[in-house]
Amino acid sequence: MDQHTEHNSQESPDQPHLLAQRDGIKRPPLVLNKRTMGWISSYVSTIVESKTPLWWYISIAITSPIALLTPLLICYLVSTGVGVWGNNSPVAWAWDITNFVFWIGIGHAGTLISAILFLTRQKWRTSINRAAEAMTLFAVVCAGIYPLFHVGRVWKVYFLAPVPNSNAIWQNFRSPLLWDVFAVSTYFTVSILFWYTGLIPDLATIRDRCTTKIKKFFYGILALGWRGGNRQWRHYEMAYLLLAGLSTPLVLSVHSVVSFDFATSVIPGWHATIFPPYFVAGAIFGGFAMVLTIMLPARAIYPQLHDMITPMHIDKMCKVILLTGSIVGYAYLMELFMAWYGANPYERAAFWYRAFGPYWWAYWSMMFCNVISPQVFWFPWCRKNIFVVFIICMFVNAGMWFERFVIIATTLARDFLPSSWGMFHPTWVDIFTFIGTFGIFTTLFLLFVRFLPMICMFEVKAVLPEANPHYGEDH
Amino acid sequence: MNSHSDNNDKRPITHDGPASKSQESTAHSGVPLSNCFFDYKHVGGRFFGLVSISIISLLGCIALGMNNPKQFAFSWLFAFTFFLTICIGSLFWILVHHGIDVEWSVGVRRQMENVATLFPVLSLFFIPLIFVAPLLWKWMVIPHGSSHALLEKAAYLNLPFFWMRAAFYFLFFSLASLWLRKLSVAQDNDGDPKYTVMAREITFASLPFFGVCLTFAAVDWLMGLDFKWVSTMWGVYIFAGSALSSLCVILLIITALRSVGYLEGIVSERHYALIGQLMTAFTVFWAYIGFDQYMLIWYANIPEETTYFLRRNTESWCILNIILVLGHFLVPFILLLFRNPKKRPAYLCGIACWILLMHLLDIYIVVLPMIHPAGFHPSFLDLLSLIAIGTALAAVFLKRLGDVPLWPLRDPRLKDSIHIVV
After folding, report:
1. Which of A19-33, B45-59, B357-371 comes out lowest in average pLDDT?
2. What ipTM was assigned to the predicted interfaces of this complex?
3. What residues in B contact A18, CB-CB < 8 Å?
4. Contact residues on chain B for A371, CB-CB shorter than 8 A
5. How do the domains of chain A map onto residue ranges?
6. What fold, for A46-162+172-467?
7. Nearest-CA neighbor of B123 among B88, B161, B159, B158?
8. Are the beta carbons of B73 and B132 closer than 8 angstroms?
9. Helix (H) / strand (E) containing A401
10. Looking at A201-326, which runs of residues are DSSP E strands?
11. Do residues A107 and A139 make contact, with C-beta atoms less than 8 angstroms apart?
């Protein structure tokens, strides 16, 4: 076949347009520069094994104090009362729920990449899934903080669990807020299991390469006695497949249930039947943007990652962002159209105030960031240019926050009765608690990069051409 | 990987061309070219049978419709919508194929194209609806100003705009599907990859229009049956049913072709497994969308919204609705979970037929309760309309089946599709 190709290209060297079209047909390799299996293991492990680099110390010195803001302010909140947040009547859900939905949305991409792309046999997922999954867990950690403390009396939070207590209080199982507790905690548990299961063979690789006894002991415990035997691999593959199957409905359910928090109500602007798929699409959209936001710097710091996280990977992720951004745009426009078409004056007013009321800037920021800005990804050169990709991802990150703010705060600010109208103004506690969650997120991610293999080595090896049983055969 | 290089076999494909040179072609490109044209001997007299059944049913519809034009209008809309969703779904799968550069579906793509290009014929069956439109869509006959709700949405719900939209939907669906098929057929002759690239570009340009046309066709023709009712999910709901049912139709077509000896070496059990997986996914997707729409309306319990489900959850319609939940979701979902049986064409075809039956019920429950609020009231016209449109489309499909090869002969991804690993 190779001879055949040569013959063919000799035949038409004077037809560059044909070659260009073939570029559109040719599948780029998943790992560039013909890297070998040995190179992949040693390079990825070296990131963990080598001396801690200076940039890491500097970064964590910046992010960890920021991360401390959140627990400190939470202590202030608990000791003083929820009044230190800007929540008021009518805007009883404000930045807390906005930030919760923002983070939980980001926590979707990892499991989507790992589970759904695994089930659909998308081999390009292998070099980004580990980091994306880790990011998912960290985002869910950040998300969980908000509803936990939004309950007001956090020491009574166990009331959310269906444990009968002496007061004979039983949870309201008909409330989507309770479903949320179950959905998010199940998602977090299964995501951790899924992530950890995928880590085991790589942890064993690190263990086997360790030079000091302490490290060997530590990674040995984490590797759970993995020896890489045939039987272990068989069990591993089955466990991974089952966990992928279990995670897939969970990815969809978490944000659907989050959307139920709003859509089951009768609040104009919240009650829309399209909310569940629209929220899921939005979550994937925001999640992929965040994956790129953290992977692009990681790729810049470790230049050889370019061979595994190739321009093709970035291109594909940009396409997912374009697709999900357009689905989100469809949902925005559908909501607008149906609000008008439904001819319900309250519904119409809700959307009018969103676009032209006091929060118009949030609405149009959302529209610009989420619907218009990703459209540049129609152009291949935009998907190839790392700076453009990074800037658009920043827009998307901001846009997805604005989306939740628009849905929550702007809707509540305009109540049914004009006499109940109000505005939301964040307090300094609101602002710094939110900034603190970014600190928590980046700190956890820095720890992950330092101590765990950020690329799934054995899966990347499995998509190398050499891993094909028919590699080198001429048929 | 280097499959594009296999396309320098530039012999034009004719009805007897590749068949006579099949040995050489196979050896040259590694992809079988033999037996790629459908032979009409398999159809034989059945073609005229289909045409005559269609004409008789059509006459029957007219005769019965004269007595009961309202029943005719709804029955016809029901039958028309069923086939519309199948054609829309087929176009969707073609767009997916080109849009995300799928490998596995190359071998079955031609049949998707054959189904999707039935749009021009299908648009002819929309014509009867023009005559009975006021019976279907009440807002057309409400005197101006007598309904406040209608007055509020008159900018959208007015006759000229309504018909213009309908024309646009058909124009778009027909042009997009015909164009994509034309490129695909053109590639059969020289295997030039430029056609693949062009099809991809057309797909990208079509996708926004596809979303708009599908959504607003569903809004105009189905949601518009009760002009006061709205659901933002409606377009997605109709889309979910379309994608699933068209997949079933494609599956049945390729199985039928295989049973008479075609697509040998092109479509294997691996492709069945993949179609089975997509059927599982879309069975769940349909249920997800349907459940969300139902649950949110039930939960909020707003009188303007609950009208839709009240009508369909009372009287004997309730029984049909329960059958829909069990039959459209639970039964196929459980059956499709098994991994190995999905590779068996017979097993999968049985499920596909069942899903199509349930899709029929789905559309029935959308349309017919509007004239029979007192309960399920089957009419002979329902069946006749279905037969009239179905047999006519089947006849056109069969007539055009032999015009072009049964699979994209020189698609650059054909070889990858044949050797796909599941």
Report:
1. A19-33
2. 0.90
3. 192-194
4. none
5. 46-162+172-467
6. Formate dehydrogenase/DMSO reductase fold (1.20.1630)
7. B88
8. yes
9. helix A386-405
10. none
11. yes
